[in-house]
Amino acid sequence: MKHIQSVKNPQVKEWKKRLSKKERDKTGTFLVEGFHLVEEAFKADAILDLIISEEIDLPGWDYRDIPVTMVTKEIIEQLTDTETPQGIVAVCKQMENKSVVQSGKTFIALDKVQDPGNLGTIIRTADAAGIDAVIIGEGTVDIYNPKVVRSAQGSHFHLPIVKQNISDFIAILKEKSIPVFGTALENGKDYREVERKQQGFCLIMGNEGNGVSKEVLEKTDGNLYIPIYGKSESLNVAVAAGILLYHFN
User: Is the entire prediction scored with pTM above 0.85?
Assistant: First the structure.
């Protein structure tokens, strides 16, 4: 077991680079923090390095094959962006499973969803609803953004999250006769009027301000809306995704 005490240590600098999307993409790795998320990563065999503060006890896992480094509280703070870090961080490998694009039947695709909290909540909800995969279209926030990872609460390690052009993905689904539903307030149908589909489905959710792009909406089998009974103009995209996923699944 290694022990590092200086924030200027080259290894610390290397770990810290994972807070950058560019470095995450380059290395195929990302950081998770906190006992719950690190444990989920451990269960998924995704941990490459385990970093633990001197101030906490080692977790009682069988991590003999995982490099473990004890560090100071100051180093932990360099690697996290929460106000009160729990003292445990892991470097994890990204886990993209593109085969599910061909084998799965139930999907949610995201078109330029930009808020990290929304994306993480949608991933977590898709996991809870038993969806086969989350499809990430261009313009959507990085799935390994620390705020996305925290909001998803470990669901990154439970279901495939695949980066894919949404128009190309729709073409794949049409070949498999899986219906695709966009979401739009205008020229849409009340979601309660659409029955659950035995052959599967794909639900497309869009940008918080602009919704699903016109180009994508024109390629769907139908577009849905959720009725608004109060004075709010719209529902939060993550809330809307939860309602629709549980309706169809």
Answer: yes
